[in-house]
Amino acid sequence: MESxxxxxxxxxxxDRIAEQAGIARATLFKHFPxxxxxxxxxxxxxDADLLQEIEKYAASExxxxxxxxxxxxxxxxxxQSREGVLKPIVAILEQGWNELPxxxxxxxxxxxxxxxxxxxxxxxxxxxxxxxxxGTYLVIIHKWRxxxxxxxAIQLASAAxxxxxxxxxxx
Length: 171
Known about the structure:
- The chain has two domains: about 1-35, no CATH class; about 35-165, Tetracycline Repressor, domain 2 (Orthogonal Bundle), CATH 1.10.357.
- It has helices spanning about 1-5, 15-20, 25-30, 35-60, 65-80, 85-95, 100-120, 125-145, 150-165.
- It is built from nine helices and no strands.
């Protein structure tokens, strides 16, 4: 991923990826026949990590406020700490890559954010709250991707607090 961050995906060669990974070019091609396969794998792994992180909070016994604010704060810190590496990949996630179906991805994210909102107590408004959380999350991620020095951790934490306060969610 560091290669993609420093030179961009289009300008990153398989030779450079192999060199940075410290493996032979033939070994790289044995596992990844082309750059599209590498990018697709990275995108799928990032999505899986995000969904797992959301599920960790959704399954907790914490209040809905603590689940939402905890996830948004932790995720914002993670994104901010790896900004240089993650922004190019986030751009791919926004645009789709190698025919990854955007509709299926949005459905998975919607279900995850709905699960975060519902939690063990199965809130009745969880689907609507999940949509609000997902929409807010995606807009903030997009703004972070296109704006230099965007305070992603602060914005995600502030948004979570505002949503929880604005919806009068009891702790």
